[in-house]
Amino acid sequence: MGRYEIKGGKPLNGTVTISGAKNAAVAILPAALLVNGCCRIENVPDISDVRILLAILEDMGVKIQRPDESTVILDNSGFTGKSPNEELVRKLRASYYLMGALLGRFGKAFVALPGGCNFASRPIDQHIKGFAALGADVVETEDYVSMTPGPNGLRGNRISLDVVSVGATVNIMIAATLLPGQTVIENAAKEPHIVDLANFLNTMGAHISGAGTDTVKIRGVDALRGGTYAIIPDQIEAGTYMAAAVATGGNVLIKNVIPKHMECITSKLAEMGAEVINYDDAIRIKRPGPLRHTTVKTHPYPGFPTDMQAQICVCMALASGVSRLTESVYETRFFGYCSELESMGADIQITGKTAIITGTDTLYGATVSAHDLRAGAALVIAGLAAEGTTWVKNIHYVERGYERIIEKLAALGATIRRVED
Ligand code: EPU
Question: How far is the centre of ligand 1, averaged over its atoms, from the C-alpha of 26 (Å)?
């Protein structure tokens, strides 16, 4: 395992190009199992979550080619419905999408329960509720989920989610695509990657409408044909580089973004004193003066994303006055990084779902540990902004979701390197 060594205190300046969206890629790759034949997926991020997912698919008999580092060609002709490798499934969260894909394609599934970042209790009851509503007999144990067709077979149905869940929305969309009849998901998640998944499936011949609203309709089709699809840019990777530019007092052009997806993040950073210029597919962000305190509450899209909570917390720790940061999706997410930031000089009090952050002029380098992906990203930002040297441990979390982070930050002028333990 390695660690990052960061010599902080230098503003980030220059241009960074954002990779394909992690949370779209990890939904689209399993969804590709529904396709009869080959599909070519472009703008796939080269991150460890994607590499593990591809290893799972390869082990299941899918032929995979990577003509370049951001393109994946999947050929499902040799795929027989083999259950995914248990050990690999436990390495990432998104492996739960294999449940929907196997159910939809073969009418049955046997999949180990997923692993991934453990910053909170992450139940999958809404996924199970969806599969059951589609007619599956579901057996869930502590280790796996097993599904077979129920007495009336599998078919579309109306499902109202009890909580807005990205994972359940994706899994039900994937499972329902090839089932007879119409499925309606109410109280669906509206994240950009839900729309991206619908666009991918529709490109391959599915009939999905309403993605991006709270009601998604899936009219089942008999089969999906192959095709080519390019994944959207990563909203959270872009937000992370924006927060890093702001925290270090830099000036960065963020290329390959969809500015509309960034509005919830850019408006908060602008409120804190950043200058933001939107172009068609790029954003320039700079911090001309000191940062001001603000109030943020995380929400499902189009609200401020929980996956940006830790990164904006670093900006708040460096802003004048007292900021309030409230988490409404994963209550325990603060515990992954706040004490680490405190060891760098941040002043954070957590009361229930809210962190009260009293800003300071300076953070100081320290040895800190990432406890999940976004917590790790926040510690990298804090290290870039801090005086002195910071060592970030447990960087395998960061590498789950950030493609070539060292190279991208170094190109912006950061002094950062990966040191092997
Ligand atoms: N929930 C339930 N039951 C369920 C599913 C979710 O109660 O069956 C609750 C969760 O406990 C949570 C809320 O609903 O309080 C939202 O969870 P959601 O299902 O939306 O989260 P997820 O699908 O497990 C995805 C992303 C996360 C991101 C969340 C929220 C992927 C692979 N993961 O997780 O991304 O934080 O949505 O936007 O898409 C990350 O990228 O760092 C990351 C953790």
Answer: 13
